[in-house]
Amino acid sequence: MESTARTHASSQPTECVRLPLMHQWWTSFTFLHWPYKPKAVRPLVPPWLELDMYDGRAWISLAAFSVEGVRPPGVPPVWRGTTAEVNVRTYVVGPDGRAGAYTLSLDIASLTAAIAGRYLFQLPYRWAEAETDASDDAASYRGRRRWGGPPARWDLAVTPRAWIRSHDALATFLTGRWVLFTRYGARVSAIPTEHPPWPLRDARLERLDQDLLRVAGLRDPKEEPVVHFSSGVRARIGFPSAAGHLTDDERPRVTAATGSPAS
Q1: What global pTM score does this model have?
Q2: Which of 13, 109, 29, 17 is nearest to 62 (CA)?
Q3: How far apart, in whole angstroms, are the C-alpha atoms of residue 156 and residue 237?
Q4: For residue range 15-55, what is the model confidence (pLDDT) as tens digits?
Q5: pLDDT tens digits, residue range 213-253?
């Protein structure tokens, strides 16, 4: 891999999405974060991505939220109402040196969105039956996978509590991610996101029954999760752009690259 300047997680946007592919509003957003030994996570992440660790440990997050107002620039939302989503992700550094995230699964309560996410972004979207019930004082999420992968389910509830300081190092590491890595053939691509800083609160976990992590290839966590809640943000999703190129399919070597959006 070529030597590249490395960027780190940040509570402030590191990407400038001048021409968005789409606008979205993410609401009632709950993060559950667990630390794992790197050897438990490494087999689940492609060799062309480096694990990004905090205090020597890899982290897995389950993010549950609702999506609203999905639209391309200049047109009304492509569907009305809210759509529940849950994803499982870990934290990585791309071949271009940027800190970002890599998703192990994404379940969304819209077949159209699941199919579009698979083909437009090459991400592991699945269609789910899911719902979110949230207020200022509590949030709950439940669902089950319907199509696109092995059966999986989730049922969780949290109570938001105190606000988190913007310079909290662990919270920044876990939520300050502005690119999502994917792959188009031999090209490694980064999907950029721009939105205001997360308005984060600590939260208490009231209920958790899920097998998403086990289905993704992880053992059940041994520790209680770090829990964060956010009322949400309005996000601008950019076009995937080149972050590297695979030069050997058998033993991948990656050379850093920049350029136009992936096709």
Answers
A1: 0.93
A2: 29
A3: 27
A4: 999 999 999 999 999 999 999 999 999 999 999 999 999 99
A5: 999 999 999 899 999 999 999 999 999 999 999 987 645 56
